[in-house]
Specification:
Elements (H helix, E strand, L loop, with lengths): L5 E4 L3 H11 L5 E4 L3 H10 L16 E3 L10 E4 L3 H12 L8 E4 L12 H8 L5 E5 L4 H5 L4 E6 L3 H11 L4 E6 L2 H23 L4 H21 L4 H4 L2 H12 L4 H10 L4 H6 L7 H15 L4 H10 L5 H9 L7
Parallel strand pairs: 1-2, 1-4, 2-3, 4-5, 5-6, 7-8
Antiparallel strand pairs: 6-7
Helix pairs in contact: 3-4, 7-8, 7-10, 7-11, 7-13, 8-10, 13-14, 14-15
Amino acid sequence: MSFQNIGIVGAGSWGTALALVLQEQNLPVTLWGHDARQIAVISERRENTVYLPGIALPKALRFTADLEDLRGCDLVLVVTPSKAVREVSARLSATDFPEEPVLLCCTKGVERGSGMRMSQILEESFPKNPIAVLSGPSHAEEVARKMPTAVVLGCQQLDVAQALQRAFSNRFLRAYTSDDVAGIELGGALKNIFAIAAGVGDGLGLGDNSKAALVTRSLAELIRLGCALGGCRETFQGLSGIGDLMVTCFSRHSRNRMVGERLGRGESLATIVASMQMVAEGVPTTYSAMECAERLGVDVPIISQIRRLLDGQASGADVLASLLSREPRPE
């Protein structure tokens, strides 16, 4: 199996960076965005000035604002914000999209209310198409600049996973495979919540000791909830677990960490969100994860405190005090 015509649904920073990865393999790529005016500007300037400024886009990269143009693709990447996945997948399905193309979900999130992972939402619209996921420590800003990166591809079908691995492996990106689709998605989604917590510590001016402790306990909480939701413990010890958790908690590129830092400095969530061009997925995922934890009876003290912070029920200092005052227990 190989891919000859690739579509990408979502012209944000990650969708654009993945287009550049695939272009490195000289694969034909069409990038779709919902804003026709913005797509026209990107096509003309050969630069995504809003979401990925300073990166030149190759002339071979095609752009469209019409989902019908993706019907002839044999691989379609879904790279929209999590809140848009259900709507966009329904719209793509309504184009009489064929059953053979592979759908690769590159969006990190859990749907509020249903608790569904993004690939499960795609499965509802495309029950017969092969579906895979991609995750790992991979900030778009660095991938677009061809800095060494490793990701993991999840799929139940080995031939599909291997074909995707060939398509995404190049001189600066190394792709691994796994059949634990749930674990890969959950690791990529839940880590964003803990990045907010890490940012709160930065905003409060706390040091390396506190962040190391937070990341360690965050991993324990991620594994606890992730396993309860169907992921494998080993997966959370890999790229889409501890790998993604580390980069998101420490990186200057992390939108979720920055949201936490600004909350720690005393800004309101409404002010922060209104000032951002891109989505910090950890905010909606906090509520989704809390719903899942309450339904399953899983103890998630860090997630619980971040929800209090987002709801305006506690300050960053209050959250810190609550976590430090918990009943002593063995590690």
